[in-house]
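User: Let's play a game. I give you a shape written as tokens, and you guess the letters that built it. Ready? Here's round one.
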């Protein structure tokens, strides 16, 4: 029998492709349809920003709030000190308390663009699990919580089993992570009435641990819901680009580069990404995703505009779109392109265009830059660069320079005053 949800949240999750698995569709659907349901997703503070690999989970929290639920963003101030071993080949480097706090500070800002925080029943909450994890008494925790976990069962979870099968070391520190995450769910249930934990499909084992702990300790009926681990149509992990992670914070990736990432989506992924990362009507998503040839480029621009609007705000998205049109349609120099500056001394002592391509991050090495030039893939202010050894002079910087690698990657370079 095909499950047909009555709640708006599950209907959206299923129809737009967010769900990999759910521990109890009917039970969760009933509660979602009868009360304000708090649900959470945890985000460990391993960097100063989240990247687009976390965007599916953020959109799940956004849809939960838009359909009447109460989203809880759990900052992993405590669990980051341990590190999630799920499907990793090695142990994460341990961060200091100050690094973790700095990372959390950087991460927090992004959520205000997707969620409404406040004191109303369905307003979002932001909580840090260091509140209950930092001051745990180890012996007391072992006595009260440890007995609810079977090591035999924990070893059977795929996230752990795959590591051991490859004979890769799993430290006792990391092994504790799943217990701490389970304890998070129990604490959130007791403190805020949280009944739902969401996460990627690799987290299902940890989610079930938290459900069982909540049932055993408090007789609480709670639920788990996972999203698929998303890859692009060419098999690459979502969140990575040719030049590294696609960060959500504009301090770590310019809004133009963010827009560019989405504009460069492969044809086969457009419809799927429109459903997951925008709020465009499903029928329109299907229509845009089915376009062929040059028409699909318009759908890609819509995708880029809508995702950038959600992540960086309407004004920034509008400015980036104008820049994109100026660069791609008119061949101009867009003010919102990533910008770099070089010193007068650098230029006078010898700065080649190949070096500039590498300095701006458009190529990864001088060798790659020279190959790009020799293959007619580099331009300066729209003109082809043909000499792999072409040098720059101070006079070249009377106006800002636009340097381009291919048709889609550009940067503005100025001379420091």
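Assistant: Ready! My guess for every position:
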């Amino acid at each position: 029998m095909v499950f047909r949800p009555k709640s708006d949240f599950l209907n959206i999750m299923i129809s737009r492709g967010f769900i990999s698995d759910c521990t109890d569709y009917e039970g969760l659907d009933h509660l979602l349809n009868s009360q304000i349901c708090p649900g959470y997703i945890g985000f460990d503070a391993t960097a100063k920003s989240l990247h687009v690999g976390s965007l599916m989970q953020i959109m799940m929290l956004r849809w939960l709030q838009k359909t009447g639920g109460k989203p809880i963003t759990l900052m992993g101030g405590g669990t980051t000190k341990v590190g999630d071993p799920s499907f990793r080949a090695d142990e994460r480097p341990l961060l200091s308390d100050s690094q973790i706090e700095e990372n959390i500070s950087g991460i927090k800002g992004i959520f205000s663009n997707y969620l409404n925080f406040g004191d109303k029943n369905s307003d979002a909450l932001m909580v840090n699990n260091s509140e209950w994890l930092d001051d745990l008494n180890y012996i007391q925790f072992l006595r009260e919580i440890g007995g609810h976990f079977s090591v035999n069962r924990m070893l059977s979870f795929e996230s752990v089993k795959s590591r051991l099968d490859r004979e890769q070391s799993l430290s006792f520190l990391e092994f504790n992570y799943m217990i701490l995450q389970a304890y998070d769910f129990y604490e959130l249930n007791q403190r805020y009435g949280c009944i739902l934990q969401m996460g990627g499909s690799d987290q299902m084992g940890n989610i079930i641990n938290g459900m069982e702990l909540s049932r055993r300790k408090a007789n609480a009926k709670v639920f788990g819901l996972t999203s698929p681990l998303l890859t692009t149509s060419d098999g690459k992990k979502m969140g990575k680009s040719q030049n590294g992670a696609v960060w959500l914070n504009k301090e770590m990736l310019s809004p133009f580069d963010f827009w560019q990432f989405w504009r460069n989506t492969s044809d086969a992924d457009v419809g799927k990404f429109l459903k997951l990362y925008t709020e465009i009507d499903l029928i329109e998503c299907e229509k845009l995703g089915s376009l062929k040839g040059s028409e699909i480029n318009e759908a890609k621009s819509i995708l880029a505009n809508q995702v950038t609007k959600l992540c960086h705000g309407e004004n920034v998205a509008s400015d980036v779109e104008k820049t994109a049109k100026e660069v791609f349609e008119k061949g101009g120099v867009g003010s919102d392109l990533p910008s770099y500056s070089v010193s007068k001394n650098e230029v006078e002592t010898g700065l080649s265009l190949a070096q500039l391509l590498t300095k701006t991050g458009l190529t990864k090495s001088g060798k790659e830059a020279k190959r790009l030039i020799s293959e007619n893939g580099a331009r300066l202010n729209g003109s082809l660069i043909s000499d792999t050894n072409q040098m720059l002079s101070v006079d070249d910087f009377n106006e800002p320079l636009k340097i381009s690698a291919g048709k889609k990657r550009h940067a503005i370079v100025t001379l420091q005053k």
